[in-house]
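Can anyone check this?
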Amino acid sequence: MPLNLEAFRATPLNTVPYPHLVVPGFLAQSDIEAAIRDFPHLDMAGLFLPEAADYGPAFGRLLEEMESPELRELVGEKLGLDLRGRPALVTVRARCQEKDGRIHADSKFKLATLLLYLNEPWEADGGRLRILRSGEDIEDYAAEVPPAGGTLVCFKVQADSWHGHKPFIGTRRYIMVNYCQDEAVRDSEMARHRLSGQMKKFKRAFGLGPAAA
């Protein structure tokens, strides 16, 4: 499942309000459809490790590509970061709940964030990622990105890398790759996500978790 690395390379870096780029068509349409078909079977909101649910072979190949040295090198070149030896944390989201999308700037242990959306064409007003100029106003945005399938968002994590989206409830799939400061913090985050996923499944099994929208 080849990624369109040439499109990534050709996309200019935006530096306002912080370093970021948006790459539509990062995946071919046939690969988007295969990845959606084979996406992990998660009926709960929240971030999960890919291991949290069964997924098909096309999605597995996509995960391998998203962690490739070639993509890592390109991200580093674009953002002016040395990502050699920096461990990657990979998580997935399948569903969105009303409280998701609140303004945030990502945790300090992250150096860079990649978001690859795997959705059908996006018509809803909510759920569109906004690159924000501040941490206070969701309407003060420099760019708005519909999470349509095959669109990649890449940005450098820094104190002012504010982003979020207006409320949306329903299916909103993506793969997130975070290049982390070191293995210790990456492993700690993986353990946290693993425990969180187990607790969500436990609550769902006993009817305590929110119903899937």
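Reply from J.R.: I decoded it. The chain has a mean pLDDT of 93.
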